[in-house]
Specification:
Length: about 325
């Protein structure tokens, strides 16, 4: 099978028939063998009934139905597990992404050798409240991930070599960082294609809340941390802890030496607690020990985690 199209959707009933017809037309015009996997993420409208109807009419339509709404990432995860095509294409259900891009995306993966091609909505049809924060978000994501050639991390329209989707784990809200996940798994040929974008035709956006920025950045930080230190937590915490402890220790020695010196020379009687260094030393040594301990516990946990030997083996003979 050439292509699997994975479509995560949440309450998009109005768009589905049109989207399906459009994808089908593009596939037939280009002679692709394909499947369309609709992942119904706990929709409360008629979406699932429509998917059932579509799958009765056409055997290339497959559906996964979540019992409740989990989010876009879990939907993609399950779609990826099910996908069988050599190239996997993800696409939003709201008709904002155009299926006409599929042939070119397919060509870039199969002929130009890309592992992942992300759509780039150069001209967006979204409200300003969405586009401006998105610019900021993308700049940060580029910097942190080191994938400097991507303008649009979060575009729903992306194409992957099958191996990529089988070897990454999209969870939480990580669908915004799939290129970064792919890069961390060792798939380095990541490209971009300018795609057409349209205003939402039916319904409204599911990602309008302000909290998405906050959560988005927290996700980016944990991803960065996991990829840098996930397997060796001691290297961060141990180092920080040791530095703290050392500084604290120096302060203690300073305070002690000062006390002894004053005693010896019969200077006016002074308590060690009068010195600010006493408190600094106290805090630093305690925090230093705690950090060191955190690193050590982290090591123990990572040694026991099921992921510890989850290495990406590309080939075996
Ligand atoms: N979506 C989903 N689960 C959710 C939220 C959204 O599967 O909990 C789907 C949604 O139906 C759409 C895609 O993810 O197909 C992108 O969502 P949306 O168009 O609302 O995001 P935007 O384009 O506004 O960023
Ligand atoms: Mg949309």
């Amino acid at each position: 099978m050439d292509i699997s199209v994975v479509v995560p959707l949440y309450n998009e009933a109005e768009s589905l028939p049109e989207l399906h017809a459009w994808i089908e037309r593009v596939m037939n015009e280009n002679g692709f063998t394909y499947e369309i996997i609709f992942v119904n993420d706990g929709s409360t409208d008629a979406s699932w009934r429509i998917i059932e109807e579509l799958s009765q009419k056409s055997e290339s339509v497959k559906g996964i139905k979540f019992r409740r709404n989990y989010g876009k990432s879990p939907a993609l995860y399950c779609g990826f597990k099910r996908a069988q095509g050599d190239v996997v294409i993800t696409m939003d259900a709201d008709l904002q992404d155009s299926p006409d891009e599929i042939p070119e995306l397919y060509r870039m993966i199969t002929q130009e050798g890309y592992d992942l091609v992300s759509g780039y909505k150069q001209k967006r049809y979204d409200p300003l409240s969405k586009t401006i924060p998105t610019k900021l978000f993308n700049a940060t994501a580029r910097k942190v991930s080191g994938i400097h050639n991507l303008h649009d991390f979060n575009c729903g329209l992306k194409a992957y070599r099958k191996e990529v989707v089988k070897n990454i784990e999209v969870y939480g809200e990580m669908h915004r960082y799939i290129p970064y996940l792919a890069k961390n798994a060792g798939f380095s040929k990541i490209g971009e294609k300018v795609v057409h974008h349209q205003a939402r035709k039916f319904g409204k956006t599911k990602f309008g809340g302000w909290n998405r920025f906050f959560n988005g950045y927290l996700d980016l930080i944990s991803l960065w941390f996991l990829s840098r230190f996930g397997l060796k937590p001691m290297h961060v915490f141990g180092l920080l802890g040791s530095i703290m402890f050392f500084l604290g220790f120096v302060a203690v020695v300073g305070v002690g030496a000062d006390k002894l010196y004053s005693l010896h020379h019969g200077m006016p009687y002074r308590l060690v607690t009068d010195s600010p260094y006493f408190y600094l030393a106290l805090t630093m040594m305690i925090i230093g020990t705690q950090l060191f301990l955190a690193g050590f516990l982290g090591e123990l946990i990572s040694r026991n985690s099921a992921e510890r030997n989850n290495y990406q083996i590309e080939k075996e003979i």
